[in-house]
Specification:
By secondary structure, this protein is an all-alpha fold. The chain has 2 domains: about 50 residues, Homeodomain-like (Arc Repressor Mutant, subunit A, Orthogonal Bundle); about 140 residues, Tetracycline Repressor, domain 2, CATH 1.10.357. It is built from 9 helices and no strands. α1 crosses α2, α5 packs antiparallel against α7 and α8 runs antiparallel to α9. The relative contact order is 0.09. The C terminus is likely disordered.
Length: about 210
């Protein structure tokens, strides 16, 4: 591990556990067991380091785990794959920070978004992209006549993402594998209602032309 990576990783853990305001440059230097010169060789200030930590452990990190799927998968399988791709980075972060809960991570992220307009924009853009993936999946299923074409794909995608984010944050006290199971179960229950609308319409059509 390089000195820069060491500073990023250990500072990330400090910011998670202590909060941005409570962590000082001296605390970082003592934790990393480096000189002040080594710190300022890699980062201009604590704020500069904080932005690098956000990039390393959120924006760039989550970008490397963007959602991909196999076209041969069913709609249910694609949604499950989406959930897996959504939660997997959190699981890896928990292993990195040796924690069992995600609450400090979301505190860290939303604290940054609350104090920096640029971070807020990038966080919103990140989750908007997740919603776009879901809307795309729903639209594809509508084109295949597997889902009711009258439903609003963007609205359903927004509702699905709200469920996923809500459960992930509210159940952040649990380990990521348990959250993943709850997400899959909840999304299955929700999508059954969508599929039921389509199946009901299909059955009514079959009766009409029988």
């Amino acid at each position: 591990m390089t000195t820069k990576e060491k500073i990023l990783t250990q500072s990330f853990q400090l910011f998670l556990n202590q909060g941005y305001k409570e962590v000082s440059v001296n605390m970082i230097i003592n934790t990393c067991k480096i000189s002040k010169g080594a710190f300022y060789h890699h980062f201009e200030s604590k704020d500069d380091l904080y932005n690098h930590v956000l990039n390393r452990f959120f924006f760039n990190y989550f970008k490397s785990t963007d959602f991909v799927y196999d076209n041969s998968f069913s709609f249910k399988e694609k949604l499950n794959q989406f959930i897996i791709s959504f939660i997997t980075p959190y699981e890896e972060l928990l292993n990195l920070t040796t924690r069992n809960d995600l609450l400090p991570y979301f505190r860290f992220l939303f604290q940054a978004a609350g104090h920096h307009e640029t971070v807020k924009y990038r966080v919103n853009k990140h989750f908007y992209k997740k919603g776009y993936y879901l809307a795309m999946l729903i639209t594809q299923e509508q084109e295949k006549n597997h889902l009711n074409k009258n439903i609003n794909a963007k609205l359903i995608a927004k509702q699905l993402l709200s469920i996923i984010l809500g459960i992930t944050i509210l159940d952040g006290i649990y380990d990521a594998s348990m959250i993943k199971g709850k997400l899959i179960e909840s999304i299955e229950l929700y999508t059954e209602q969508i599929l039921h609308i389509n199946n009901t319409k299909k059955n009514q059509t079959e009766v009409q032309y029988a």
